[in-house]
Automatic annotation (TrEMBL):
One of its GO terms (cellular component) is plasma membrane. It comes from the Bacteria. GO terms for molecular function: histidine phosphotransfer kinase activity; phosphorelay sensor kinase activity. PROSITE patterns: HIS_KIN, PAC, PAS, RESPONSE_REGULATORY. SMART domains: HATPase_c, HisKA, PAC, PAS, REC. It catalyses: ATP + protein L-histidine = ADP + protein N-phospho-L-histidine. This is histidine kinase. The modification 4-aspartylphosphate is found at residue 553. CDD domains: HATPase, HisKA, PAS, REC_2_DhkD-like. Its EC number is 2.7.13.3. Residues 77-129 form the PAC domain. Residues 504-620 form the Response regulatory domain. InterPro entries: CheY-like_superfamily, HATPase_C_sf, HATPase_dom, His_kinase_dom, HisK_dim/P_dom, HisK_dim/P_sf, PAC, PAS.
Length: 621
């Protein structure tokens, strides 16, 4: 082809075409479209090489492709690169070229057709960035998110799904590392979902309709509830798992609570009707003029017993209500729990004897000193004994022991009764809950006794636990109460109580009447006192007064007692100051928080003066 024919062909081409000299890549001829693409005139282009037009970052790679075509056996080449226009703009192009050789095989001309692919590249880049943002968002999402692609069989049917993407939340929910999820088959990981999730995902892919469903599944032995939302993405499916286990558990708890209340109301009706029926019949008998006197006396005794049962039932209900609303007050004093145990045994003896049980009592000769409410602690032990008697077959055995173990007084009630199912143990102290509802109805009981036990023990800063090897294997209840030292007797009115040295005591309490009464009591005992009613003034008094002991209320305004204790410890240090939390809060969590804040002891109001003086002297922990 002559040069004239070549120029004519370039003018008629309608696309960007250029020819070049193979060894140097110098431009020999161009079409109008190529000029428009680069922004140069034909004359300007004929003074340049293809390398001059190529973006600096693409030159080495592009030149290598071109040289392989010129010097190698291949006649054609393809290169994707960027051109830099005359105005500085950048255009992405794909060059499809061919090398022409003479009869000796020497490369004499290179011809390239250039296609502008800038728009496609920009779209690809926008898509890439969008995917990056999407993946970053999913990586940070608290909801589990996965992308699945179909795995089809030879007939083209979806046989399974492969994980294409999974965020960290999905790995946590499925209990599989994310790196082990990608590429894995859905049904290998969740075989139980072959009949539930798998057909739903197939339907999403085939119909394009999204789905939203709540399901439960087990991941490595851990059962979870999720809201599963799936939409079609490309030829696959994107799935979001929102963990709703907590919500489902709350819903179930509400249902269980309603069930227990219904059972309780049914049992309450039963428990009320039985004694009322007995009283009704006994009253009719006592009113009959022809009834012999012994029979009349028997009827009166029946009414007395049944009225007593009704009274105890009402008392239990009122106790639960008062404790739940925080309306009950303990009358605490130093006492020997051994005496309380004997009183409880005497109270429970009629029921134990009526059931022909054998009771083994082990209290020991040593005092069991606690600080508590005699009536309430007796109620705790009586409830445990009657519970053991009710839920043990006639002629069974009950063991009651009370011992000091380290800093605790421990009471254990064990029986050979019906036992407690394993799944029931965590709920045995819940209100209206019974391990054996049928037996409860038959033997009397509202399912509130153990709730009372737990809450009364906790009000004494103690704990209670239940244990059982299962149904038919008996049960054991263990009560732990903090032990105290028996208070020493005072040796005279003058000077500090118990003959101890006078202490410098800072009283911190926002109840002014209580604070002033306490200060007067301490001063009467020979101690030197200072008084503060809030946190900041307490810290200032600690600096100026330099106390040896601080009696610190927890429920202070603005800055609570825990924060005051922490700051005092930070300024004074450990061991240089005894900080005694002196508060109306007596739960186990309150005691723990006091210790963590740096308090040496946690005293619950009201407290016997002798016990308080012993703590101030440093004899109590």
């Amino acid at each position: 082809m002559s040069e004239r024919d070549l120029h004519l062909a370039l003018e008629l081409a309608g696309v960007a075409v250029a020819t070049g000299e193979p060894p140097t890549a110098r431009i020999l001829a161009v079409s109008r479209e190529f000029c428009a693409l680069t922004g140069y005139s034909e004359a300007e282009l004929l003074e340049r090489t293809f390398v001059d037009l190529t973006h600096p970052d693409d030159r080495a790679r592009d030149l290598a492709v071109y040289q392989r075509a010129v010097h190698g056996a291949e006649r054609e080449w393809r290169s994707e690169k960027r051109f830099v226009r005359k105005d500085g703009g950048v255009r992405w192009v794909v060059v499809r070229g061919a090398v022409f050789r003479d009869e000796r095989g020497k490369a004499v001309r290179a011809v390239g057709v250039i296609e502008d692919i800038t728009a496609r590249k920009q779209a690809d880049e926008a898509l890439r960035r969008s995917e990056e943002r999407f993946r970053a968002a999913q990586e940070l999402s608290l909801d589990a998110f996965i992308v699945l692609r179909p795995a089809r069989d030879e007939a083209g049917q979806i046989a399974d799904f492969l994980f294409d993407f999974a965020n960290p939340a999905a790995g946590r929910l499925l209990r599989v590392p994310v790196s082990a999820l990608v590429g894995r088959r859905l049904l290998d990981l969740m075989p139980e979902q072959r009949t539930e999730l798998f057909p739903l995902y197939v339907r999403v892919v085939e119909t394009g309709e999204p789905h939203d469903k709540e399901i439960a599944y087990t991941a490595r032995g851990h059962r979870v509830w999720v809201r599963n939302m799936a939409v079609k993405v490309g030829d696959g499916v994107a799935v979001s798992f929102n963990d709703i286990t907590a919500r489902k558990q709350a819903e179930q708890a509400l249902l269980d609570g309603d069930r227990r209340k219904d059972e309780f109301l049914a049992m309450l009706a039963h428990e009320l009707r039985n004694p009322l029926s007995a009283i009704q019949f006994a009253l009719r008998i006592s009113q009959m003029p022809t009834v012999p006197e012994p029979r009349r006396a028997w009827a009166q005794a029946v009414m007395q017993r049944q009225l007593g049962q009704l009274g105890r039932m009402v008392d239990d209900l009122l106790d639960v209500s008062r404790i739940t609303r925080g309306k009950i007050t303990l009358k605490q004093e130093p006492l020997d729990l051994g005496h309380v145990v004997y009183q409880a045994v005497a109270a429970a003896a009629p029921l134990i004897d009526a059931s022909k049980h054998e009771l083994a009592l082990d209290v020991g000769p040593r005092p069991l000193p606690v600080f508590g409410d005699t009536a309430r602690l007796e109620q705790v032990i009586v409830n445990l004994l009657t519970n053991a008697a009710k839920y043990t077959r006639e002629g069974g055995r009950i063991w009651l022991s009370a011992r000091q173990e380290g800093s605790e007084i421990v009471v254990r009630v064990k029986d050979t009764g019906y036992g407690i199912p394993e799944e029931m143990l965590p709920r045995i102290f819940d209100l209206f809950e019974q391990a054996h509802p049928t037996l409860g109805r038959a033997r009397g009981g509202l399912g509130i006794g153990l709730t009372l036990v737990k809450r009364l023990v906790e009000m004494h800063s103690g704990s209670v636990a239940a244990a059982s090897e299962g149904e038919g294997r008996g049960s054991e209840f263990t009560v732990r109460l903090p032990a105290v030292e028996p208070p020493a007797e005072a040796e005279g009115a003058a000077g500090p109580v118990s003959g101890t040295l006078a202490r410098r005591v800072l009283v911190v309490d926002d109840n002014r009447d209580h604070a002033h009464a306490l200060v007067l009591l301490l001063e009467q005992a020979g101690h030197v006192t200072a008084l503060a009613h809030d946190g900041p003034s307490a810290l200032e008094a600690a600096r100026s007064f330099a106390p040896e002991v601080v009696l610190l209320d927890i429920g202070l305004p603005a800055m609570d007692g825990y924060e005051v204790a922490r700051r005092m410890r930070g300024e004074v240090g450990a061991g240089a100051l005894r900080i005694l939390a002196f508060t109306g809060y007596g739960q186990q969590d309150d005691v723990r928080r006091s210790r963590e804040a740096g308090c040496d002891a946690h005293l619950v109001k009201p407290i016997a003066p002798e016990v308080l003086f012993a703590h101030i002297a440093g004899g109590e922990r």
